[in-house]
TrEMBL record:
The protein's name: 4-amino-4-deoxy-L-arabinose transferase
Source superkingdom: Bacteria
Transmembrane segments: 26-46, 108-126, 138-156, 201-221, 233-252, 287-310, 322-343, 355-374, 383-403, 434-451, 458-475
Keywords: Membrane, Transmembrane, Transmembrane helix
Species assigned in the record: Micromonospora acroterricola
Length: 577
């Protein structure tokens, strides 16, 4: 950090009103509670059009496992033995207790997601106050920006682990900051519990577990903690890892896995020089994406964090916290890129931002903290780094896309790779790195110019909130609604006469999205698959309905009568006579 000028060394700004004011003790907590309620309501409103899963097969895996944990039938999961986690299904499993329609259970899952996802607001406020030492008004407005960031709010509407990862990141880094500042067994155990939660939730938690182990070792070597402190920090991680295995064994074969365990294909994908370049380009893409969707603030924050590591001005607590966040950011981006490169049978992704999105609120807040508290010269230097990252990253991605196209190939570009980037750049069918870089540069420079005028600081932060809200509305209109409409089978299973208690199977001839969403509506049994001839135990089957086409399924050959279906969606339900 620049001497005497950076956010990492500046003292907290003076209080805006006398500390003795009676409203001071309850106003901020009240605002946070009201904000949390409004945040939950906003997320539920955004998800109003999603009554069946739209993110296959991730949602299907979590929902089937959650239903099995609640005592209901199991089903398939796209996970594999090595990377299987049960934390998120455990969280949403109460939605499947009792006898209710699937859509009702799905709404409860969305409510659980919204409630957890909305904790970003109070956590972001605490981070702004404790780590960044922002004044109350700045911390509140910054927290609202973080809580409305599309990179995290988007996932509250679907049954995906990403709905809870961003709040967990903020909670973990807050706990680390307190632990380094005030070492003690309770603080160590809190950090260990949160790290264990990462492991229980998703395989990307392995990066955080590794970073946590390194942190504990360094603190022990430097005699910052004692052996009891080491145990307090590590035992919760071990306990939750064992809990994951115990629940998996409890499930048994009620949830059967379709995923393949990463192995030789991943090693082969990164073992060559070309493979290293390919993975490196994917890492650059993910990090560039973080800078774009945070309006350049991630780049500002990284520059400030590196400076803090090189010349600490705010003490070890801030220094170590920033260091951990940097290592995790690069580690998660690298690990995800390596694993995805090893997936065979599918083209590589142009961008797959899901794994790094959980870090976006933290870096956004740190970058805003720099802009709102540092001197002009420091702000300009940090912004110059962000601009350089955007230019370099955009250039690398443009070259990558052009090279792949010149070889006659294409990179996969799906709706869940980076929905916010799609909305910001208008790139619904293809990635637009130059446009993304220009948007990031323009937003960063506008913020830098605005914060130089004190009376414009809060209004410009408010503008970011508006941009987030508009972006989410665009995502809803252009992505969510069309996906919800195209993936929902009509009529409903109950409306064609399928009765509770009947043994139901589905043909692989039905498009997999419709097959999954038909199966979810059968809440009383696990819907298995067949190819051509249904098993003798099947009483009702879902099959392909395509009159005049070779793969049209004729159930009369096997003693079935058609109940109904949708010829436009190419599916029909049949009952055995």
């Amino acid at each position: 950090m620049a001497s005497g000028s950076d956010v990492m060394r500046r003292p907290a700004a003076p209080a805006e009103t006398p500390p003795a004011a009676p409203a001071r003790h309850w106003l901020v907590p009240l605002l946070l509670v009201v904000g949390w309620v409004l945040s939950v309501a906003w997320r539920m409103w955004l998800s109003r059009h999603i009554s069946l899963p739209i993110a296959h097969t991730d949602e299907d895996s979590y929902l089937n496992t959650a239903r099995a944990l609640a005592g209901g039938p199991g089903g398939l999961s796209s996970e594999n033995d090595l990377l299987r986690r049960v934390g998120y299904p455990m969280l949403i499993s109460p939605a499947f207790l009792g006898d209710r329609d699937f859509t009702d259970s799905y709404r409860l899952v969305q409510l659980i997601n919204a409630m957890v996802n909305s904790t970003l607001l109070p956590l972001a406020y605490l981070l702004g106050r404790r780590l960044l030492q922002l004044r109350r008004s700045y911390a509140l407005f910054g927290a609202v920006v973080a809580a409305t960031l599309p990179a995290t709010a988007f996932y509250a509407g679907v049954a995906m682990i990403d709905a809870v990862m961003a709040p967990l990141v903020l909670a973990w880094l807050l706990a680390v900051h307190r632990w380094i500042g005030r070492p003690g067994p309770l603080a160590a155990a809190t950090v260990g519990l949160l790290v264990g939660a990462f492991h229980l939730l998703h395989s990307r938690g392995l990066v955080i577990v590794a970073v946590h182990a390194g942190l504990v070792l360094l603190l022990l070597i430097r005699r910052r903690i004692t052996p009891p402190g080491v145990l307090a920090a590590l035992l919760p991680v071990l306990a939750l890892a064992l809990a994951n295995e115990a629940v998996i064994r409890l499930l048994g074969d009620r949830v059967y896995l379709l995923g393949s365990t990463p192995g030789g294909s991943m090693v082969e994908a990164i073992a060559s020089g070309q493979g290293v370049v390919r993975v490196g380009a994917a890492v650059v893409t993910q990090l560039w994406y973080l800078v774009v969707i945070t309006f350049g603030m991630a780049g500002v924050a990284w520059a400030a964090a590196v400076r803090e590591l090189w010349r600490p001005r705010r003490g070890d607590a801030t220094r170590w916290t920033m260091g951990l966040a940097l290592v995790v950011s690069v580690g998660v981006a690298s690990g995800a890129s390596a694993i995805l490169a090893g997936i065979t049978g599918k083209p590589l992704d142009a961008i797959y931002g899901r794994y790094v999105q959980m870090l976006a609120p933290f870096w956004l807040l740190v970058g805003l903290g720099v802009l709102l508290t540092a001197r002009r010269r420091v702000v300009l230097r940090r912004a110059a780094v962000a601009v350089a990252l955007l230019v370099a990253g955009g250039a690398v991605i443009a070259v990558r896309l052009a090279y792949v196209a010149s070889r006659g190939h294409s990179l996969r570009y799906g709706g869940f790779g980076a929905p916010d980037l799609m909305a910001l750049t208008g790139g619904w069918r293809e990635m637009r790195p130059v446009v993304g870089s220009l948007i990031g540069i323009g937003a960063c420079l506008l913020l830098v110019a605005a914060v130089q005028v004190p009376r414009l600081r809060l209004p410009i932060v408010g503008v970011l909130v508006v941009v987030n809200l508009v972006t989410m509305q665009v995502i809803d209109q252009r992505l969510v609604r069309p996906m919800a409409a195209s993936t929902a089978p009509t009529p409903r299973v109950a409306d064609v006469g399928v009765r509770p208690g009947e043994r139901v199977w589905a043909s692989t001839g039905v498009h997999y999205v419709l097959r999954f969403n038909l199966s979810h509506q059968v809440t009383w049994t696990d819907v298995r698959w067949f190819r051509e001839q249904p098993p003798a135990a099947a009483q009702v089957v879902f099959t392909r309905w395509a009159p005049g086409q070779p793969d049209d399924w004729d159930g009369t050959r096997y003693g079935f009568v058609r109940l109904g279906g949708n010829v436009d969606q190419n599916w029909a339900a049949w009952r055995r006579v």
